[in-house]
From TrEMBL:
It is found in: Cytoplasm. It comes from Kyrpidia tusciae (strain DSM 2912 / NBRC 15312 / T2). This is Arginine--tRNA ligase. The gene is argS. One of its GO terms (molecular function) is arginine-tRNA ligase activity. InterPro entries: aa-tRNA-synth_I_CS, Arg-tRNA-ligase, Arg-tRNA-synth_N, Arg-tRNA-synth_N_sf, ArgRS_core, DALR_anticod-bd, Rossmann-like_a/b/a_fold, tRNAsynth_Ia_anticodon-bd. The lineage of its organism: Bacteria, Bacillati, Bacillota, Bacilli, Bacillales. The keyword Protease does not apply. Monomer. Residues 9-93 form the Arginyl tRNA synthetase N-terminal domain. The keyword Hydrolase does not apply. Pfam families: Arg_tRNA_synt_N, DALR_1, tRNA-synt_1d. Its main location: cytoplasm. Residues 435-557 form the DALR anticodon binding domain. HAMAP family: Arg_tRNA_synth (MF_00123). It catalyses: tRNA(Arg) + L-arginine + ATP = L-arginyl-tRNA(Arg) + AMP + diphosphate.
């Protein structure tokens, strides 16, 4: 348990004990504490007296006064307690806990905020899962940044996490890729072959066809139609998937498993899933089709599984895929989808329930749209392809750090207006620059310290008198450092990486304020070494926080 959580637990426990001495009964974990907006009102505030007064029908302020007089301040780590307003209790803590916060950071170093005891819970996160028919675009980039950061945060909070990419390598989209590549291949050979109506017109298909002609000539043209189709389909899939893998690797996203939709068909899992739903009584025939009775589980209408022509709908292999996930024994399944899939959530939860699973085990996070702006004007089209801006183009223009950071600044269900000019500016208005510069500035301070006789700042910090760190900017910084483990836990519980973003921006703000007000080097030795310890603690926290976002912590800028 972190230092700050220990402080809070101690205060709750002693406040509950004080209530007991007043003839009242309250469990410590029911005592509510909050940090007042105005720091003049103490470190923590509680409405415990107001809540208890309702139960015993006593004046809240009088009860608050009695609790304040009865509280064992020393045991609670409280310097003083004041009664405010209608019966709030404001607690001013003994500042010794601030030293413990910094000692904890310096001890944990790059593991600060990480849950020490694993939760014993297995989580699978499936994200991106784009059709392998072209380059990943800006929407996929948002899902990639969100899914990857979420995995990092969940792991830091003690969960066992598996990252998975679902390859849609069966069905119409792959068929259309194959016939598109075939048409482009013949065109590259100089033949007048039209593109199919449902073909993919992206530049990637053209370039792949031209490369096949350069490397293998007319070999595929000599094949039978059936063999050529299968060969080009496989070539197209391999090339597009490699392109996706390369873009994701560059974006600092990795997957533990790439799951093939085609494997579901080849293993018979799709047919088995339909039969299981049939055995459970959740399918029926109507109008020549086979229907899933999803309305029995809250869906707005029943869904077709097998069409009248005998082909499967998109839903059927997706149900089989989620059945496979459930059978792998994950405690929680997290799917990261685009906003255009919002109508799919109810039917997939219905499928999980129909298969005998708990629909609450399935968590779906939808990522809203991203609008790009340059010079205040919307950027809608890729310069290269004429279609949506690709992830690769975004990385080329603003870099991986800025791309990930800007895509993570807001909640996944909020629309993003991405300012390309701001993302590359080197100013305090650029949030990622502002946070990274705080880290780079600390690195500069520590380099200067090393030149001035502190070859090992960590060793010097071990014996530092941290009690001298009591100026307001120092205290504000120490308090905020203590919040980091709780912020990680909160971000994991809410599936909200943007909590970490906001934490880091506030940490950078407090550090820059401290740096402006409190000289680190050139002070009296006792103050100098204590402030070096403080900036070292900030450095560790910035590094950990940025890494949870998949963003670099540069030493120079």
């Amino acid at each position: 348990m972190s230092t700050l959580l220990n402080v809070q637990e101690r205060l709750r426990r002693e406040l509950a004990a004080a209530a007991g001495r007043c003839g009242l009964s309250v469990e410590a974990d029911r005592v509510h504490l909050e940090v007042p907006r105005d720091k003049r009102h103490g470190d923590y505030s509680s409405n415990a007296a107001m809540q208890l007064a309702k139960e015993v029908r006593r004046p809240p302020r009088a009860l608050a006064q009695q609790l304040a007089e009865t509280l064992d301040c020393r045991a609670a780590g409280v310097e003083r307690v004041e009664v405010a307003g209608p019966g709030f209790l404001n607690f001013y803590l003994d500042t010794g806990y601030l030293d413990d916060i910094l000692r904890e950071v310096l001890k944990e170093k790059g593991a600060y905020g990480r849950r020490a005891v694993p939760r014993g819970s297995r989580v699978q996160v499936e994200f991106v899962s784009a059709n392998p028919t072209g380059r990943l675009h800006i929407g996929h980039a948002r899902g990639a940044a969100y899914g990857d950061a979420l995995c990092r945060i969940l792991e830091w909070d003690g969960y066992e996490v598996q990252r998975e990419y679902y390859i849609n390598d069966a069905g119409n989209q792959v068929h259309n890729l194959a016939i598109s590549l075939e048409a482009r291949y013949f065109q590259a050979l100089g033949r007048d072959v039209p593109m199919p109506d449902d073909g993919y017109y992206g530049r990637d298909v053209v370039e792949l066809a031209e490369r096949l002609v350069r490397e293998e000539g007319d070999r595929y043209a000599q094949m039978s139609e059936e063999k050529r189709y299968e060969a080009l389909k496989q070539k197209g899939l391999e090339a597009m998937l490699q392109q996706i893998r390369d873009d994701l690797t560059r974006f600092r996203v990795r997957f533990d498993r790439w799951f093939s939709e085609r494997a579901l068909y080849e293993s018979g899992a799709v047919e088995e899933t339909v039969e299981e739903l049939r055995r459970r009584g959740w399918v029926y025939e109507a109008d020549g089709a086979l229907w899933f009775r999803s309305t029995a589980f809250g869906d707005d209408k029943d869904r077709v599984l097998i069409k009248s022509d005998g082909s499967y709908t998109y839903l059927t292999p997706d149900i089989a895929y989620h059945r496979d996930k459930l059978e792998r024994g994950f405690d929680r399944l997290i799917d990261v989808w685009g906003q255009d899939h919002h109508g799919y959530v109810g039917r997939m939860k219905a499928a999980v329930a129909a298969l005998g699973g708990d629909p609450e085990r399935l968590v779906v996070r939808l990522c809203q749209l991203v609008a790009l702006y340059r010079n205040g004007e919307p950027v809608r089209m890729s310069k290269r392809t004429g279609n949506a801006v690709t992830m690769a183009e975004l990385m080329d223009e603003v870099g991986v750090d800025a791309a990930r950071y800007f895509l993570l600044r807001r909640s996944n269900d909020s629309h993003i207006d991405f300012d390309l000019d701001l993302a590359v500016s080197q100013s305090n208005d650029n949030p990622v620059y502002y946070v990274q510069y705080a880290h780079a500035r600390i690195c500069s301070i520590l380099r200067q310290a090393s030149e001035r006789g502190y070859p090992d700042v960590d060793q010097a910090a071990e014996s530092a008198n941290l009690r001298v760190l009591r100026r307001e900017p120092e205290v504000d910084l120490l308090k905020w450092l203590g919040n980091f483990p709780t912020e990680v836990e909160s971000a994991a519980a809410a599936y909200a990486p943007h909590h970490i973003v906001h934490y880091l921006e506030e940490l950078a703000k407090r550090f820059h304020s401290f740096y402006t007000s409190c000289r680190v080097l050139g002070e009296a030795p006792e103050i100098e070494v204590a402030r070096l310890a403080l900036v070292r603690g900030v450095q560790w926290t910035l590094r950990v926080g940025l890494d949870l976002l998949g963003v670099a912590a540069p030493e120079q800028m």
